[in-house]
Amino acid sequence: MRSYGEYCSLAKALDVVGDRWTLLIIRELALRGACRYTDLRNGLPGIATNLLAQRLRELEQADIVYREDAPPPVATTLFRLTPRGEELRPALEELTRWGVPLMHEQDPEDAVRSHWLSSAIDLMLTDRRPKRPPVTVELRIGDEPIVIQTVDGRVRTSLGPAPAPADLVLTGAERPVLGLVLGITDLAGAQALGVAYEGDPAVLDRLRVDR
Amino acid sequence: MRSYGEYCSLAKALDVVGDRWTLLIIRELALRGACRYTDLRNGLPGIATNLLAQRLRELEQADIVYREDAPPPVATTLFRLTPRGEELRPALEELTRWGVPLMHEQDPEDAVRSHWLSSAIDLMLTDRRPKRPPVTVELRIGDEPIVIQTVDGRVRTSLGPAPAPADLVLTGAERPVLGLVLGITDLAGAQALGVAYEGDPAVLDRLRVDR
DNA sequence: CAGCATCCGCTTTGATACTG
DNA sequence: CAGTATCAAAGCGGATGCTG
User: Fold this and answer.
1) Closest approach of chain B CAs to the CA of A84, in angstroms?
2) Which of A127, A74, A134, A124 lies closest to A99, judged by CA?
3) Of B6, B13, B88, the CB nearest to A96
């Protein structure tokens, strides 16, 4: 990227991470940990492969990403965030939080990955009854199930099938399921948009932040 | 900007504010409040005027900026952040904070504005002795003096000459003065780089965060 | 197959000139 | 003051091909 040529902390930051795709590459590494080139391509649908290679080179030079020549069994290159790259998490989180209301628009063409959604859920929910027995909610959306669990007064999300039967399982399109979980839509509204559930929908009240 | 086409909160956010110059325009409005077109151009050296006009239109459509047709005495257009635009502050602050170490590189060509610097200082300093009488430090850098004051256990920066004589006045190039204030350089090092002071340099210790 | 590099058409940006 | 108009240059998207 061409430098903004401003002696300003924000401008200098954008000189490094302000290019198209750059923050999304960092998102992939922040959410998924070590990634192969192919994993990154899968998590960044639409990126041109030459751009991905170029950005990874730039991020390496900027000490945000490093390349690990892998252990014998797999024998592939892994990309990871450096400590300096990890320090971008707060900024990523604030931008992610700001973007949540924009999830109201789901273009039918939009690609969906469950790990993108789980990170937003993580930021927007909390456990309002930390002393009660933990609850589990499973969302059947995206490319793999999302499991929401209460742990130590916080909410933790993970991917893949729930280890134990969940207290509530939601199925349907991403937007209305998210709307219900985040408290933007009520149960009746979500059902009208095709959301189905199994279990106890009341557990959701425990997770939602007041606004 | 062409949409990333991802149903992801961060990607949706970047669809709106990820274009070149966009976050810097929002920075200007966040730091300076209402701005005229000309003020924006002055705070964004290097932007092409057609781009500024286009971005402002896009930001208006995205409900981040609005245009106020001004009161009779001035009779000019003012641009302001909407409430939705104000909600970008936390994200701006985190990116600004992340960029501070990059201020280590000051290209002689870089434009400098004092309000860019004061916002970074604001984020990086605190008052470690809130019960003692307040102190004032004045920095003669950028295009106008920066005044740092301790108020209620916080640090407040403002622009323009200090209302009362400061406990410490620093003069010199931006980078070494900032380095000294933020505790990256010590006094001897800063002096070696041309920084001069008047007053009591010890007040700086009170403002710096431990690392 | 993973990890790129090259080529080409299109879109975005930059620089400058001009206008109500 | 607050833009619009124009055009060249840079960046990006998509397709394809190369290499271990």
Assistant:
1) 9
2) A124
3) B13
CATH number where B123 lies: 3.30.1050.10
Q: What is the pLDDT of residue B75?
A: 78
Task: Tell whether A114 and A200 lie within a shared domain.
Answer: yes
User: What gap in Å lies between CA A139 and CA A162, rounded to an integer?
Assistant: 10
Do residue A113 and residue B8 have CB atoms under 8 angstroms apart? yes
CB contact under 8 A, A95 and B11: no
CB A22 within 8 A of CB B10: no
Domain range for B62 is 9-87
Residues near A70 by beta carbon (within 8 Å), at least 6 away in sequence? A76, A77, A78
Q: How many domains does chain B have?
A: 2
Q: What would the pLDDT profile of B45-68 be if each residue is shown by its tens digit?
A: 999 999 999 999 999 999 999 999
- B36 and B122 housed in the same domain: no
pTM given for the model:
0.96
Nucleotides of C under 7 A from a protein CB: 1-7, 11-17
Rounded, the Å distance between the CA of A11 and C1' of C4 is 31
Write out pLDDT tens, residues A105-150.
899 999 999 999 999 999 999 999 999 999 999 999 999 999 999 9
Are A80 and A112 in the same domain?
no
- The rounded distance, in Å, linking the Cα atoms of A27 and A193 is 30
A8 to chain B: closest CA residue: B116
Domain contains B96:
no
Residue B1 in any domain: the answer is no
What are the backbone angles phi and psi of residue A199, rounded to the nearest 5°? 115, -150
CB contact under 8 A, B88 and A100: no
Please give the average pLDDT of every successive group of 10 residues along chain B, which has 211 residues.
Answer: 96 98 98 96 97 98 94 84 98 98 94 98 95 96 97 92 93 97 95 97 91 63
A79: in domain: yes
Q: Does the CB of B211 sit below 7 A from strand D?
A: no
